[in-house]
Amino acid sequence: MLIGELAELAGTSPRTLRYYEEHGLVRAGRDANGYRQYDDGELRVVHEIRTLLASGFGLDDIRPFVACLRAGNSAGHVCPDSVAVLRRKIAEVDDYLGQLTEVRERLHDQLNQALESPCRRAR
Amino acid sequence: MLIGELAELAGTSPRTLRYYEEHGLVRAGRDANGYRQYDDGELRVVHEIRTLLASGFGLDDIRPFVACLRAGNSAGHVCPDSVAVLRRKIAEVDDYLGQLTEVRERLHDQLNQALESPCRRAR
DNA sequence: CCTTGCCTTGACGCCGGTGTCAAGCCGTAC
DNA sequence: GTACGGCTTGACACCGGCGTCAAGGCAAGG
Q: Of B4, B13, B82, B89, which is most buried with the most CB atoms under 10 A?
């Protein structure tokens, strides 16, 4: 499979696939051409990457998940390394959720206060 | 008040104050020196900016709040323009909270699933 | 032969708020 | 005189995941 095809199948771009490869996530062989040749399994890898990215993971965090998939597991998150990252990310997300909730309340308070208060016009 | 003093009082840096000025948020007069001379009121302005930045606002969003303060209001969020931004931001935050919550659940599910599943070692 | 369309590597742009370095002016203290 | 500390403007560096342009190779089809 060539890079354009894989990109199409994975719903992304060749540029992106090269980027992933450059960061050690996706693997490709080479044609006599010099063209990248992708194994069928890489499609799953790319999907895994995209899903995790969408969940707020960074490429570095994703590496263990890819390794896990390559090791023949049915999912990338079942290996110890993945689990460790998973736990860390969950903690981060929880933390962030907490902060965001506080912010939300502050903003709500300000809004309510504004709706009750008179104001001079700005400028 | 000179830039270093204001920076100190506001808990930030001269660089940052110049940046705010460059973006039309903070105002400064000039000495014969060419040195920036700050009015006392600017301290409140800078505080307002910092607070809003910490809540996830961008500098552009903050502008109406500053205008509101300058208009003599006791708080930056009581003017119509500020309220509009406030509503928009609240909506953004709510939306983001929703997404983050979904992500959190996905991650929890994956973690639980991982804890039940056997796995081959990665690599 | 020329076009078209795939591929290659390399490199800069973006976003946003700041750190940081450069080179130089100003005033005060020694 | 000179050293020092505060100020000035200008400009590059950072982070991360790409978009996008440049310049070129390779294969197929007219």
A: B82
Facing residue for B55 by CB, picked from A81, A83, A106: A106
φ/ψ of B11, rounded to 5, equals: 70, 35
- Using one digit for the tens of pLDDT, what is the confidence trace for A71-81? 999 999 999 99
Whether A67 CB is under 7 Å from strand C: no
Choose the closest CB to A122 out of B68, B107, B121. Answer: B68
Half-sphere exposure (Cβ direction) of A61: Cα atoms closer than 13 Å: 19
Asked, for residue B123, whether it belongs to a domain, the answer is no
Residue B107 tokens, joined:
């991650």
Judge if pTM exceeds 0.90.
no
In a domain, A112, yes or no: yes
Task: Please write the tens of the pLDDT for every residue from A47-97.
Answer: 999 999 999 999 999 999 999 999 999 999 999 999 999 999 999 999 999
Domain count, chain A: 1
Token reading at A39: 């194994």
Q: For residues A72 and A68, give the distance between their C-alpha atoms in angstroms, rounded to a whole number.
A: 7
Q: CB of B9 under 7 A from strand D? A: no
Range of the domain at B68: 3-116
**Is B114 close to A77, i.e. CB distance below 8 A?**
yes
Q: Per the domain annotation, does B77 fall within a domain?
A: yes
**Which residues on chain B are in Cβ contact (under 8 Å) with A121?**
71, 79
Give the CATH number of the domain where residue A98 resides.
1.10.1660.10
Q: Which nt sits closest to A33, CA to C1'?
A: D26
A29 touches strand C (CB under 7 A): no
